[in-house]
Amino acid sequence: MAEAHQAVAFQFTVTPDGIDLQLSHQALTEIYLSGVRSWKKRIIRLKNSVITGVYPASPSSWLFVVIAILATMYTRSDPSMGLIAKIQEHLPVSQSMSTQCQAVVSAVLFSTMLWLLLIFTMRLCLKQLLSYHRWMFEQHGKMSTTTKVWVALVRIFSGRKPLLYSYQGSLPNLPVPTVKDTVKRYLDSVRPLMDDTEYERMTKLAAEFESNLGNRLQWYLKLKALWAANYVSDWWEEYVYLRGRSPIMVNSNYYGMDFLYVTPTPIQAARAGNSIHAFFLYRRKLNREEIKPWLLRSAVPCCSYQFERMFDTCRIPGTLTDTVHHWQDSDYVAVYHRGRYFRLKVYQAGRLLSPREIEFQIQRILDDSSPPSKGEAKLGALTAGDRIPWAKARTKYFSSGVNKRSLDCIERAAFFVTLDDDEQGMMGDDPASSLDHYAKSLLHGKCYDRWFDKSFSVVYYKNGKNGINAEHSWADAPVLAHLWEYTLATDSFQLGYNAEGHCKGDVDSSLPRPQKLNWEIPSECEEQISQSLAVAQALADDVDFHVFSFRDFGKGKVKKCRVSPDAFVQMALQLAYYRERRTFCLTYEASMTRLFREGRTETVRSCTNESSNMDTVSQRLFRAASEKHQQLYRMAMTGGGIDRHLFCLYVVSKYLGVESPFLKEVLSEPWRLSTSQTPVQQVELFDMVNHPEYISCGGGFGPVADDGYGVSYCILGDNMINFHISCKHSCPDTDAHKFGDQIRKALHDLIQLLGPNQKEPSKPEESRPEVKKDQ
Known about the structure:
Blueprint: H1 2-6, E1 10-15, E2 18-23, H2 25-54, H3 59-74, H4 83-89, H5 99-130, H6 145-157, H7 179-190, H8 196-211, H9 213-227, H10 233-242, E3 254-257, E4 262-263, H11 268-287, E5 295-296, E6 300-301, E7 313-316, E8 323-326, E9 332-337, E10 340-345, E11 347-348, E12 351-352, H12 355-367, H13 387-397, H14 401-411, E13 416-419, H15 431-444, E14 456-460, E15 466-470, H16 477-495, E16 515-516, H17 523-541, E17 543-550, H18 555-560, H19 565-581, E18 587-592, E19 601-605, H20 609-612, H21 619-637, H22 643-656, H23 661-667, E20 673-677, E21 699-701, E22 709-716, E23 720-728, H24 736-754, E24 771-772
Parallel strand pairs: 4-24, 9-13, 13-14, 18-20, 20-22
Antiparallel strand pairs: 1-2, 3-15, 3-21, 5-6, 7-8, 9-10, 10-16, 11-12, 14-15, 17-23, 18-19, 22-23
Helix pairs in contact: 3-5, 4-5, 5-6, 7-8, 9-22, 11-12, 11-16, 19-21, 19-24, 22-23
């Protein structure tokens, strides 16, 4: 096979005259250039490690300190108060050096120690400054004098031109709340959900826990907080994500959508060419740490550690627990098309292929008519089904030989690509319904045409639309959304397309063809694939989805009413749920804790005493509920949440082998309304004024409870809110479309309540047809 010949650097044949050795100049050149590229990356990583290691100082500041100390010595003064002389006395090479040389070396050593001490002091000061969170609780636009001074000090101690990971060593650790405070907040959160008898019983359980077992568990948690960078994150990743034995498809993975109203090109291969190239441009910036750290209020840094495993990462199944494996930079992507898997190299002779060249290679895959190997077509279903059967099958059938080599190729790829034969997006006679199909396609596809274990998989549809599906354990949605925003913007605004819709540039037709992966799947493995597919298909068929774009008003109008847009949407969700079910429920809203080192998420319990009073809506009750929600959100962001603390206490109790009726009941309560907002982080990449059609529809996830809803929303610009609603067909009490109608009605009722004299558009624009553009 041609691919096999391209994979080796030499060939040899045995003749009567001896061994005839034939070296391949092209292959050796490729090996040499790959080595050069690898060493360049190592040098860049070393340089960045030094810059990050001394931040908020800079490497050049060392030279400044050395020159300053030497200058003071030549003025006959001793800034070291005798320390330089002490160092000079104990220099091991003092006998072979002149007195003047000894003095210079001693001064340099003292300067270096002084410089390191200054760096440590600056980091300590910055860490203490970043532990101040009162600024978050102040009214927006009304900053206290203390906070103004604090902002100035943070900017002074933050240094200049930080790299992506520069702030990591200065971020404070997540504090452990007191058991008393957490229990009190928990009881407040469940009061509107329980009658007097239930609440009294829960109060007694809580009091017993607080006075007895709680303090013992808390001691171990405080010990962990002293030792670990974050007392929650590692346990959260392991026990919430990796130890789950049910399918990660629908239950854990989530998705992101393409532009809503425009498709930059209708050519599938061209869209993939630009997009894949943009992904690798982002990875290059990531490796060089050129991505700017995310700053709140342009001053307060957020943790960036989740970016580390974005590329070249895969979840590996195990019988007890899965693991997340991360490799060094892969120079290829794994591609799935019509039941076949391919290895597509995106680097040639040490350079990244141009978008036009990647398009050319993708088109080769699309034009390849070779049939799949026996058992290959639906192999991906193993990643969609239950985890234990997949772990056993992986050990039994993929641990050696050609199957191991091909599986390694997929798992070690930079990311996974699916070339889908379907057309998706807002289209046809029923554009609203087409969005629902689009969401389901991204969430689970055909259950075998995605590799759900990869950190993320990109789907390219036949009509040029695309989308992304992500595994959840390695990072949360805002991290992947940062990559997705960059890719969409670079694809359309930086790279662009020619008049025919193809990628710009020329093609090197001598590029080696993409390599088709080979498999030897035995019949027993095929049977397991079929079983996993049946489990996944039943799960996928049960998902009910509704996606809609609410364009009657947006955050611009809400902010004029002096209400937080997020609180407004959350209160609308509470009102909509109550109107549908005539009751309130335990509600989960994801909040981030990235103000702390290795922070991930915390839960905001949006159903409160104040929001449950809104069954009789009034402006006074609404404002009280929204203000309480904002207070809870700020508490969650600053380490004062409820659920992560209780979760960790529960984990400690399991390690100690003790039972807590209180913790057991708390952690078994179902989240019948699970919500999340995905904010647009890089607004500067998009022109919402001149090109409002270039906006993503956001993304979504599957329902958390069998009898509940999953609601993701994205607030875009001043006049749009996109909703992604999921539930299960098997539950007679849930209906995604009916709940969507209730949300629309609640949004209108609340804005009318806040500003009854404000004129609203009479007709929504959610059925606006899509425009396809060639650039």
